[in-house]
Amino acid sequence: MKKLRPFIIFPLLLLILTWLLAACGRTAPNEATITIKEMAFTQSEVTVKAGQPVTLRLVNRDGYTHAFDMDAFDIHTSLAANETAVLRFTPEETGRYPFYCSSPGHEMAGMVGTLIVEP
Ligand SMILES: [Cu+2]
User: All domains of the chain, ordered by start, with CATH?
Assistant: First the structure.
């Protein structure tokens, strides 16, 4: 029985290592949720890492249509009342990129924010 132990431990270690690597990938996600409520983005600043895919979840909690526009990445999305949208893109360069709602008058009413891309 004792001779079999290394053969049992090695696959077990491999399994643990695989799990740890997967866990590490999950603890540093380039993900953010921006909620739209009462004619405003609840998060006016969102920080992500450059060179990694970003997942941006947009949640419209208002009873009317909004938009999410970020010219730097050519993103122009419309969100119906209570709709959720998921955007995926990869910012290659660091910087501060403004986003806004292009529904008439909404940007002027304060529907603006900044995506901060860090190294
Ligand atoms: Cu709006």
Answer: 30-118 (2.60.40.420)
